[in-house]
Amino acid sequence: AQLGAGFRVALGARRARPQELDLAVTGALRPRSFHARLLLAFVGLLTLAILIAGTAVSITTTRKVESQMRENLAIGARVLDSFLGLRRAQLAASVRVLSNDFGFRSAVATDDTATIASVLENHGRRIDADLVALVNARGELLSSTDVRMLAEGFP
Length: 155
What we know:
Elements: E1 2-4, E2 7-8, E3 21-23, E4 29-31, H1 34-99, H2 102-109, H3 113-126, E5 133-135, E6 141-144, H4 147-152
């Protein structure tokens, strides 16, 4: 549209004409005009920038997640070590109490298997132990709260 005195208003963008694109032997379109080449370069650079940004975000996210997993595993290991240490101390104290019990000591001295089994079961229930066993100095199993262990022997 003419506005007078040499001014024109352009409506819409100019489209590439069919003669501005050249179909190569390989089947790819090669732009001939400057505008088409500029647009192709811009789209290519934009695509490359998006790929680089996406790759950077992916790598950074992966590293952060791996770092957090290592930290969580380290915290879990410390908590487990602390728990096991406390449980070990609790069991050692329970063993000292049981070994100082006069009734238990006399049952062991007289080889009273029924009393030994009863004391081991009661003491195991009191300290919430899954298994309580009496082993002599040579490592031989004398009594246990696990019947299968008595039948199969102590490892």
